Amino acid sequence: MSLRIFVSSTSGSMKIKEQQAYIKRILDGLGLAYEEIDISDPKNAEAKAEMQEAAKTHSKSVVPPHLLRDNNYIGDGQDFYDAVEDDNIEVFLQVPGAKEKKIEPLEKGGSDENDTEKVPQD
Hints:
Shape: globular
Distance between the termini: 67 Å
Structural class: alpha+beta
Oligomer: single chain
Largest sheet: 4 strands, mixed
Number of strands: 4
Strand content: 5-15%
CATH architecture: 3-Layer(aba) Sandwich
């Protein structure tokens, strides 16, 4: 299963540069193999068109970064960031054997003396 990240080495946007660096840093930290495709390189025109079509199909901006797994659109930079924050990045990236982590809601209404700060009474 091949993971591809579409980036632009000529972007003037600091936000795009930061998202691209963030994605690569996380992928490298996880030890996941990926192919980086620079859509600003004319030799990647066909791959750029594929990325743009995939992004449009999912109502996303065509501005990189975008991720595809085996020619299936995964998401953009914000989707990637959200998956990291939700601690479900491996599920998002469709890593074989990855399991979604459930976040348990906080219980309401229970009273625990350790949960509340006691204010001295005069």
